[in-house]
Amino acid sequence: MEPETQAVDLTAYLSEKIGADNLVVNGITKVEQGMSSETFFFDLSYTKNQNEVREEIVIKREPSGGILETYDLSKEFRLLNSLIAGGITVPQVLWNEPDAKIFERPFYAMKKVEGDVFNVDPRRPSKLMFNDDERPSLAGDFVSNIVKIHNFDWKNSDMGFPADPGKDNEAVIRQIEQHEQAIDRAGYRSLPIIAMSINWLKQNSPEIDRLSIVHGDYRIGNFISKGGRIQAVIDWEMCHLGDPHEDLAYILSPAWRSADEGLVNHLMTEGEFIKKYQEMSGISVDPYKLLYYGGINIIRGLDLMCTAAKNFTHGQSSDLRDGIHAMTVDFLLEALMGVITMLTAS
Predict the structure, then answer these.
(1) DSSP assignment of 25-37, as one string?
(2) Structure confidence at residue 124 as a pLDDT band (50, 70, 90)
């Protein structure tokens, strides 16, 4: 069923949830960006407390088949609820709906955040992403938000994360095994470079000195900005507990750098980012851990690309972007071999 045909069916549901009278769904727009959960914008008009209201809400819906397997958006809903209570800049969630009959699959709703999302394109110079007046404040917000995420008191929150595994390497081993299982389901686990790299990373994982929330996809393209300030950090599907260096290695990846000056996420130099992060977080950045978690991030990339290729091949996805991901696997394998070579030489 196409989303547009759902408008009449959703009117009564949304009226009850919002507490509105005379509610009209003026339009439903599906956002084609993103490759995990589905995102819809609902343009609503209604009466509440005798006032005429027009607003947009956003619905994130579980996909029929996506690159992140085993979806449970209720966990993301609880996470965002906890983070906003802790002062982290995220969209305000409204309600969670597990009943698949309402909108074909489970979803949660949140308020729309006004602003721009700049799509990742390493070929573009920074001046085409952010102007020089915006960049300093955006860079400050970019660092400040990841520091708040890494310093968030998750132990005393209601986000449902597992118990603290302590200072050993249990969290990273769990992450590697989850990626390994997904790669195996996609049919790529038997490739020698993948088998060797996964085994090496599990056997040589560094101790986690500080267990934190890891966003998992913190970069340009996953924050909303307006007037030179970050209004919200989005796309929390890959959030988990782990070493902050996993996020840092991801942020510093060449994939998110500008074409002209190699600025990290088109915002600042690598040295500026590390200096600001250490000053604001109180966490010392370990170069070896950055390299190690660079390897973990490549394994995660293989998890996503192999799963996407499998979904397209088996007819679980008709997204043509999924169809080309098999070609990305070879590039990631080459990058993985380079990282493992550097790690073994360290």
Answers:
(1) EEEEEEE---SSS
(2) low
